[in-house]
């Protein structure tokens, strides 16, 4: 009976968790110091454990305890290895996950930065192009305005050239008219001179003056010629004088009538030609020798 009780106690001490599913390794570790202490006491003093039959109890206790300790050590070592492997695996997985997240974040930030820089560069290029287009359009408008002004100036010069050509032709016609007028006046004077000579000769013949007929005719012709020259000089002087003030020299031609009829001083005060009373549209100063 004592042996059976001792064995029963040894089984309860040595194998508290082997057949029980409810005992955890942590509970076993908490119970381990008591079991180890009991085993140590049994080794040092076999009589403390079982009394009668202590050698057998000591042998059974030592064998069972050693097996139990060996199993516990193996189980604990295996559990630690599993925990360390699990911890290492979890750490490596977490590190890999964090590394992937960091890489993804860096790539996303790089992509955002690239897109932002690309957009800024695009906006800057658009602003530069707008400035260049505005400057180019301004320069083109200025050049177009200059071209229009040059064309207008060329047209004005062409019109002025045509007017000058027409005025030149008019002056040539006037010169021809004046030449024909002078020629007709000279013919008229010659005819008048011949008539005066003939009348003097007839007058002397009727009065019976034989020797003095030639002298009277010559003196009569001289008088007529002097009078004619005086008239010509007076007409020429009158022709050279301004038709408004009758004192200034003629030097301004009125247009469109083309009459040489005013001096430079009276040109500013005349709105119409003093010869034909036509409205003055323009005037040209000429030089007369």
UniProtKB/TrEMBL annotation:
Tagged with keyword Transcription: no
Keyword Membrane found: no
Sorted UniProt keywords: Coiled coil, Metal-binding, Zinc, Zinc-finger
Protein's name in the database: RING-type domain-containing protein
Pfam family for this entry, one: zf-C3HC4_3
Coiled coil ranges: 115-174
GO MF annotations, alphabetized: ubiquitin-protein transferase activity; zinc ion binding
TM region(s), chain numbering: none
